[in-house]
Amino acid sequence: MTTERTTAQRATTKRTTRLRRMAVAGAAAAGAAASLVGAAPAQAAADATRVYVWATGVNMRACASYQCPPYDNVKVSRMYVTAFCQNKGDDVRDGNYANNWWLLVDAGGPKGWISAVYVRGGRNWEPIPGVSQDFDDCR
Fold first, then answer.
1. How many folded domains does the chain comprise?
2. Least enclosed by CB within 10 Å: which of 50, 81, 115, 131?
């Protein structure tokens, strides 16, 4: 009788484990499908480019100028951000780096402008390759 109970318990455990695996796989597939559906409108909204901000504590502003104060408590540090466009603005110098190009970015909070000086892949006094220079993309 003990052997029968153990065999029955094993069969139940295998069935439960199989059902759990199918449920987890189904949930994963549903989540993947939902994320693809959710991502489509954002990608269609604007041609955006992921860029890397190499510096720490980079201020975000409402315009490409020092005349716009930095956002309160919003700093970008060593992370990838979504850049929508770039435009010329105030000159920024930091060590050997200098540029007057600014990028409109989204780092997971409000959109804001950061200097191209702090974005990997650019050269002094030049725009960041791959980021739109069409101001219409900034809307």
1. 2
2. 50
pLDDT single digits (tens) 23-58: 434 444 344 333 333 333 344 345 799 999 999 999
What tokens were used for 37? 């559906």
Judge contact between 82 and 60, C-beta under 8 A. Answer: no
Answer for the pair 112, 97: CB distance below 8 angstroms, yes or no.
no
Structural domain range at position 3: 1-45
The tokens describing 49, both together, are 């480019």
Q: Which of 58, 123, 77 is nearest to 97 (CA)?
A: 123
Kindly state whether residues 62 and 19 are assigned to the same domain.
no
Residue 62: what pLDDT? Answer: 96
Q: Are residues 41 and 63 in the same domain?
A: no
Q: For residues 104 and 63, what is the distance between their CA atoms, to the nearest angstrom?
A: 8
Question: How is residue 48 annotated by DSSP?
Answer: -
**Domain C-terminal end among 10, 28, 45:** 45
Query: Among the ranges 11-25, 44-58, 80-94, which has the highest mean pLDDT value?
Result: 80-94
Alpha-carbon Rg for the chain in angstroms: 25
- Same domain? For 53 and 78 the reply is yes
